[in-house]
Amino acid sequence: MKRDAFRVLQVTETVIYLFAGFLIAAGAAVLLLSTMVEGMRHLLDGGYSEVALALLDRILLAMMLAEILYTLLRFAREGTIEAVPFLVIGIIAAVRRVLVLTAEAVEKFDLADPAFLAVLAELGLLAFLVVAFALAIRLVRPSAGQ
User: Fold this and answer.
1) So what's the pLDDT on residue 143?
2) What is the pTM of this model?
3) Residues 106, 111, 117, 121: what is their CA dihedral angle, to the nearest 10 degrees?
């Protein structure tokens, strides 16, 4: 009886993760498709910088969704969750924010603008996060020589 109940709960957990994976995959597909349609519209209107920024932002977001999907599929297959995929998601998110922030800052801020210091502080924090995530990946992954 206990074994059957445990098995039902395991199957239910796997189904939940797989369903979440399907939703993430569908969301990524819709995101990429809408990015393409919106990008074409902006290109036809002559908004080249908007296209580049939107493509960069949304493609990196799609990469984050792909990494989450990879983690869900691996959990459904193996039953274990690893830290490395989440650290990779953190790196992609930080790099995404750095790229978008710098692209927006070029258009918005002047060096004399006081808000420019806030942007610099955020960029410094994001750079620190990327280094911290990379070090965490190095510490979590077993080295090839062992």
Assistant:
1) 61
2) 0.74
3) 50
